[in-house]
């Protein structure tokens, strides 16, 4: 079977690790992101985000939301679910609905309830809980409990590669209970490229097998599939980037359109295509800041490349939450230490409004996210090698930057504005201020100026997402965590990532799958002698054994290229801490 598009190499960025400057990195990110809207390859005419088929699917789901909003009963529910980045975006979408869109409803309306599910619970909003992705039974049980007393449930499952077992279990549960559930599946592969690995806890069926029954339900009009092809990621498999952006656009377009129709009784229909084009305009406007973006990436790379350097995001409201999300994705994606890139939010959990509330009960250091914590503890240990990025909205500087003058390291102030007021732009050896102006004229012409301003939040978040993804990804490229355009220091922390790790070793070593697997296991178990028990163990066991260990994939890859013991591979990486350089030298 062909490689899923979400796992393919993007030819645009194949050599992103050796481009000459951060400015070139930004230009490549921009070209990749344009594929979200323009399509990719042979799929561009028929299956892009803006193709008629995909727009129709979005409109149909929007209508399903409207039907539940118009039902006066209390027993209807909309559930959005995903793993990792997809789960974080599910949380963000529900937060947008509750804190922005609900305000447009008349007091007499009785909206259905909205819930998010993220595999691993709220701890997964900030820390990697990726092993939960592999359990379809847990996924189904979580959904069953949330919806146990509901009359009608619109379930929206997100899995960029049509691969996550956690979501597969929920889809399977919905198909067995179509009298209550209307399932919607969002992903970015054609159905015939869904993952083929069998899931023991799903009756040894794969996601590909599940899709056979799901497509039958779609044809009957009792289920929905939204799967535009947005092309391979800039960094292979890093679905937090294009996949995350497309997911955010789809969810917010569905809910904004539905609430617009229900709350405004408009004379004209919500224009889905025009609304999505507004996101495209936001992306283009962010990338116009090439000079500033490239300087911030340069500073970010310098921070991570120097001993003890860190990147800190400090923000307010929804823009600050985007910083929390971006920082949380660096450890599983790049093998980063938890403190390499961290986010803090003005108001902490009181501003976050997550279901489980304050999570510091699981560990103060790991789950402290408040601005107060940053000021009292983190800021006191700042070094000149660090970088602090302040994220503000509509020039509201006081909430997060009252102590900026006291900070001795490099500082970036990113201001996301839709009003005319801007912070005066400044740039020096230690400070940069950037204004990202959100063009909301298109929205204003569609829904009126009052609503456009109220609903501008997701566009500010989109600008912040593009900005932050560029910073963290660019910084890790400069640190040598990317070889060609592959994440070579990723963690094999679930079934999908285990097999992706295996594929990286096989790709560069040109060894068979069996031999490549042995090098991966030797690195995981830190031995050159693989016992029968190790070889017979399940992938789940290998994944559990890998947790907490560093540089598993780089060690395995160097050992396979040098055909050397694991200890020797470790020594090579210790002597050359820039992983990309160590692998490049091993290839010659």
- Taken as a percent bin, the fraction of beta residues is 5-15%
The end-to-end distance, rounded to whole angstroms, is: 32 Å
CATH class of the domain at 35-278: Alpha Beta
Number of strands: 12
Return the structural class. alpha/beta
Helix content: 40-55%
How are strands sequenced across the largest beta sheet? 2-1-3-4-5
Structural notes for this entry:
The chain is α/β, with parallel strands linked by helices and 588 residues long. It is built from 26 helices and twelve strands. Among the domains are: 35-278, Rossmann fold (3-Layer(aba) Sandwich); 488-587, Helicase, Ruva Protein, domain 3. The protein has helices spanning 22-38, 44-47, 52-70, 85-99, 136-146, 165-175, 207-219, 242-264, 272-287, 290-305, 317-328, 330-334, 349-352, 364-367, 371-378, 398-401, 441-447, 449-454, 457-478, 495-509, 513-525, 532-536, 539-546, 552-562, 566-575, 579-587, and strands at 76-82, 113-118, 152-158, 181-186, 224-226, 311-315, 341-345, 387-393, 410-417, 431-437, 482-483, 486-487. Strand 3 (152-158), helix 6 and strand 4 (181-186) form a beta-alpha-beta unit. The protein is globular.
């Amino acid at each position: 079977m062909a490689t899923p598009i979400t796992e393919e190499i993007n030819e645009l960025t194949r050599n992103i690790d050796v481009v000459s400057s951060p400015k070139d990195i930004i230009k490549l990110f921009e070209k990749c992101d344009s594929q979200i809207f323009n399509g990719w390859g042979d799929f561009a005419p028929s299956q892009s985000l803006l193709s008629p088929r995909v727009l129709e699917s979005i409109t149909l789901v929007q209508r399903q939301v409207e039907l539940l909003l118009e039902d006066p009963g209390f027993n209807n529910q909309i559930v959005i679910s995903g793993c990792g980045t997809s789960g974080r975006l599910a949380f963000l979408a529900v937060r947008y609905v509750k804190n922005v869109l609900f305000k447009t409803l008349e007091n007499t309306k009785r909206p259905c309830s909205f819930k998010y599910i993220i595999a691993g619970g709220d701890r997964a909003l900030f820390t990697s809980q990726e092993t939960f992705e592999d359990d379809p039974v847990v996924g189904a049980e979580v959904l069953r409990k949330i919806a146990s007393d509901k009359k009608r449930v619109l379930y929206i499952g997100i899995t960029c590669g049509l691969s996550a077992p956690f979501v597969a279990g929920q889809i399977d549960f919905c198909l067995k209970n179509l009298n209550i559930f209307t399932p919607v599946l969002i992903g970015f592969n054609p159905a015939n490229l869904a993952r083929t690995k069998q899931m023991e806890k799903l009756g040894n069926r794969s996601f590909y097998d599940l899709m056979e029954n799901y497509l039958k339900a779609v044809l009957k009009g009792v289920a929905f599939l939204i799967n535009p092809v947005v092309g391979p990621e800039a960094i292979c498999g890093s679905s937090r980037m294009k996949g995350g952006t497309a997911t955010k656009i789809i969810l917010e377009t569905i809910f904004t359109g539905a609430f617009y129709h229900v709350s405004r009784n408009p004379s004209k229909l919500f224009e889905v295509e025009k609304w999505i084009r507004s996101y495209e305009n936001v992306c283009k406007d962010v990338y116009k800041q090439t000079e500033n973006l490239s300087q911030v990436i340069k500073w970010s790379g310098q921070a991570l490349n120097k001993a003890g350097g860190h990147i800190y995001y400090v923000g307010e409201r929804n823009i600050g939450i985007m910083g929390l999300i971006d920082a949380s994705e660096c450890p599983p994606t790049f093998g980063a230490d938890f403190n390499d890139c961290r986010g803090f939010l003005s108001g902490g959990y009181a501003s976050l409004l997550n279901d489980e509330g304050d999570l510091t009960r699981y560990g103060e250091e790991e789950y402290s996210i408040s601005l107060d914590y940053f000021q009292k503890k983190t800021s006191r240990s700042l070094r000149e090698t660090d970088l602090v990025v302040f994220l503000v909205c509509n020039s509201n500087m006081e909430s997060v930057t009252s102590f900026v003058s006291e900070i001795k390291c490099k500082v970036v102030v990113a201001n996301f504005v839709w009003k005319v007021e801007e912070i005066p732009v400044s740039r020096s050896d230690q400070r940069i201020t950037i204004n990202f102006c959100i063009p909301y004229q298109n929205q204003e012409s569609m829904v009126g100026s009052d609503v456009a301003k109220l609903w501008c939040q997701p566009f500010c978040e989109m600008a912040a997402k593009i900005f932050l993804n560029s910073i963290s990804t660019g910084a890790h490229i400069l640190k040598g965590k990317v070889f060609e355009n592959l994440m070579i220091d990723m963690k094999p922390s679930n079934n999908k990532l285990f097999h992706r790790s295996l594929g990286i070793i096989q790709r560069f070593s040109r060894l068979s799958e069996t031999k490549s697997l042995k090098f991966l296991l030797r690195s995981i178990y830190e031995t050159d002698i693989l016992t029968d028990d190790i070889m017979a163990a399940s992938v789940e066991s290998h994944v559990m054994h890998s947790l907490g260990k560093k540089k598993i994939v780089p060690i395995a890859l160097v050992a396979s290229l040098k055909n050397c013991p694991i200890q020797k591979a470790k020594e090579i990486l210790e002597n050359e801490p820039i992983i990309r350089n160590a692998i490049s030298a091993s290839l010659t």
